[in-house]
Amino acid sequence: MSGIMSSLTGVLTSLGGKIQGVVDRLFPPEKRAEWISRLQAFAVSNPKLAGFLLTNIALTGLPLLMFVVFTITVFVFSLVVALLVGLLAALLFTVFMVGLALLLILPTVFLTTMGATFLFLWGLGGYYIVKWFNEGSTGPAPEGDAIGDKLNSLTGGRLGFLTDGARKKEAGELPEVGSAGDEVKKGAGEVGDNAKNEVAKGADGVKQRTGKSANGKAANGKADKGGDAE
C-alpha cells in the first residue's frame, strides 16, 4: 500500500511540475506577481465588489473550467475523427475510381497489344513479300524500281535510310555492330601506337640535338684552348 501511495505521489508531483512549467511559460512569475499586486490593490479599494466576484469565481469557476475542457476535448476528438473518416473516404474513393479505370484500361491495353501484334505480323509478311518481288529469279531489283524505293518516293524520301541501309548491307558495306566496335578499338589502338611512336621520335630527336650541341661546344672549347696554347 505504501508503495502504491509513494508511486501515486511521485506521479502527481511530476504532473504538478509539468503543469507548473506550462503555467510559467504562459504566465511568467513577474507577470503573476504584478497581477496579484493589482488584485490586492483592487480588493483593498473595493472590498464589497471583490468579495462578490471572489464568491462567484469560487462557485462557478470549476464548472466553467470543466466546460472549457469539455469543449476543447470534443473539438479535438471531432477533428481526429473527421481526419480519419476523410482519409478512409479518400482511400475508398481512390480504390473505386482505380477499379473503374482498370475496367477501361485493361481491355484497351489488350486491344492495342493485339493490334500492334497484327500490324507487326502484317509488316513482317509484307517484308518477305516485297523481298520476294524485289529479288525473284533475276536478282535484286535495280535502284528506283524496287517497291521500297517507290514507298520512299511516296513518303517524300523519309524512308531513304532504310533502303540505303538495306543496299549497303546486301553489298557488305555495312559492318555489324560487333565488328564496328572491333574496328573502333583497332583504330584507337593504332592511334595510340602512332602517338607513342611520335613521342619516342621526338624524344630521340631532342637527345640527338642535345648531343650534337654538346659535341659542338666541346669542339669549340678544344679549339679555343689550342689557340691560346699557340
Give the number of DSSP strands: 0
Give the topology string: H per helix, E per strand.
HHHHHH
The shape is elongated
**Overall residue-averaged pLDDT value:** 74
Q: Which spans have pLDDT < 50 for at least 5 consecutive residues?
A: 222-230
Classify the secondary structure makeup into a structural class.
Answer: mainly alpha
Q: State the distance separating the first and last CA atoms.
A: 131 Å
Task: Supply Rg.
Answer: 50 Å
Query: How many distinct helices?
Result: 6
Fraction in helix: over 70%
Q: What composes the largest sheet?
A: none
Strand content: under 5%
Could you outline the blueprint of secondary structure elements for this entry?
Blueprint: H1 2-26, H2 29-45, H3 47-135, H4 147-154, H5 160-171, H6 177-229
Key words describing this protein structure:
about 230 residues, mainly alpha, elongated, disordered C terminus, transmembrane, membrane, transmembrane helix
Question: How would you describe this structure to a colleague?
Answer:
The chain crosses the membrane at residues 49-72, 79-103, 109-130. Residues 172-230 are annotated as: Disordered. Residues 182-207 have a biased composition (Basic and acidic residues). The chain is mostly helical and 230 residues long. Among the domains are: 1-45, no CATH class; 140-171. It contains six helices and no strands. It has helices at 2-26, 29-45, 47-135, 147-154, 160-171, 177-229. The longest helix has 89 residues, at 47-135. 1% of the residues are buried.
Summarize the structure.
This protein has 230 residues and is mainly α.
